[in-house]
Amino acid sequence: MIYDVIIVGGGISGLMAAIEAKTSSNKVAIITKGNIFKSNSSMACGGINAVLDEKDNQKIQSHIEDTYKSSLGLANLQNITYMCNRASKIISKLKLYGVDFDKDESGNIMQRPFGGGRHNRTCYVKDKTGSAITQVLIKQAKRLGITFLVNTFVLNLSTHKKRVSGVIALRRVDSNVLVYPAKSVVFAGGGYAGIFRGNSTNAQDYTGDLTAVCLRAGLTLKDMEFIQFHPTGIKKTNYLVTEAARAEGGYLVNENNERFVNELDTRDKIAKAIIQQQNNHKKVYIDLRHLGLNKIQQKLPSLYNAAFNQVGIDISKELLQIKPVAHYSMGGVEVINMVESKIAGLFICGEMANTQVHGANRLGGNSLLEATVFGELAGQKALSYSCENSFEIINYNNVIKDIEMIDYIFSSDSSKNFNAIRVSLGNCMYENVGIIRTEDSLIKAFDYIKYLRTQSYTLHCINKERRNNVELTSILELRNALEISEAIILSANLRKESRGSHFREDYPSLDEYYNKHILVNEIKKGFFKLEFEENSFLSSIRSLLINKN
User: Fold this and answer.
1) Domains in the chain: how many in total?
2) Is 504 noted as a catalytic residue in this protein?
3) 227 contact partners, CB below 8 Å, separation of at least 6
4) What pLDDT does 383 receive?
5) 511 in a structural domain
6) How far apart are CA 458 and CA 452, in angstroms?
7) In this predicted model, what pLDDT tens digit does every residue of 47-97 receive, in sequence order?
8) Catalytic annotation, pick one of 63, 86, 121, 230
9) Torsion sign (Cα): 480, 484, 487, 490
10) Which is the most buried residue in 19, 93, 183, 524, by most CB within 10 A?
11) Based on the domain organization, do 212 and 348 belong to the same domain?
12) Do 140 and 204 lie in a common domain?
């Protein structure tokens, strides 16, 4: 089957793109690796930032300034301005689709405070905002006649003369490699924090697959060292304790019942403060007991149920032990004009795109806003491109290479346990490339990942049944995870300073020399080239100052 527009990724960004790209006469498909209800968007609990009055320029400017301040100089002010100005219209559109935001007695959307914000601007649906938006968008996509190609693993991009021609994908039900031609393609595959398996809020299969696909296609990765560790995950299960818990008045306390940090500070500062407590051998808890059962069940029902079902804790009466966990990727694939790539007809949005609105540290509530705003824009541009261009040639030599790769994985036996390798990778990344990094820890991680990369190409499926073979996708995910891990480590080693979510114990201060982005390219398989790119916004300020003088 051929399509006018293909969207890869079934989270909020991908769904928004698909809805915007669909007309009454064209064919649009969403490809998802798993089922349509599984995405990081569904796990985003706290809310979506927006100044609801589009004429309140003062509050919109405040949102812009808070977002840029949090980025610590590594964001694009023009992109932030577009996102914040678009926010009220996005909320109106979501309401029109059927998102039922929590409202006050007068019917006005309620907004809670989030860390790093000077005003209450986070709209929410209890503590399940991402899930509520996702379900509404899925229903809207189905109403419009968008096709869902589920359980389909994208292996590579198909291009011809630097123009997109479709995607090459593995149909998981029978392990067949298929080609899906398209006039335009949108990548919205999410982030790569799942690489930190066992220490992440992300599902274990969020390994940066599409980011690795882009790298292999010759695209550039940017700011890969910036990974946000959410301060509060349930200690035993990594379940996300939403920032809404602190926004509604929850305290962070150590085992001596001492509060040690401003609960509404930015996430990087809170995560580091918790790690310092743990390094001093003190357990850390979130205390919600003073809120009372009624407020907890009204505002935080999902957290209440999760805490009780997962670890047997009644948060209205007991402390809940927490730890920081890998949560969000600020780095990603470089884009131009907010959602365009260097491959004509390929648009990239959501967490996997480096839209330069988060920089070194993302504000809570801005991820869902980024997903909706830039998903909408990517869909509009993909539609426009598909109307103005015809189908490009599919190079079936590349398809044959992917078929041969899959056959090779089935062709022999393996004595190695790839699931154990994945767990080992996650622990290595958390311990050495986590919240606190040093040159020694990064070199240790790099050496181990290089070793694992050599081992990953000797892995084969023990189970030779091709129908729904989970081993096959696990091996492919591991290969992608190792490729992305190496890019993260090399970038973190090159940035010899501390900025936002990137903390180097051996370089603990912010250094103005590093007011620039780190770009990663794969010059040939297994070999990366890193270089600095001056921050365009800071460069323009400097040139203005020079011209003034």
Assistant:
1) 3
2) no
3) 192, 193, 196, 326, 328, 329, 330, 331, 488, 501
4) 98
5) yes
6) 10
7) 999 999 999 999 999 999 999 999 999 999 999 999 999 999 999 999 999
8) 230
9) negative
10) 183
11) yes
12) yes
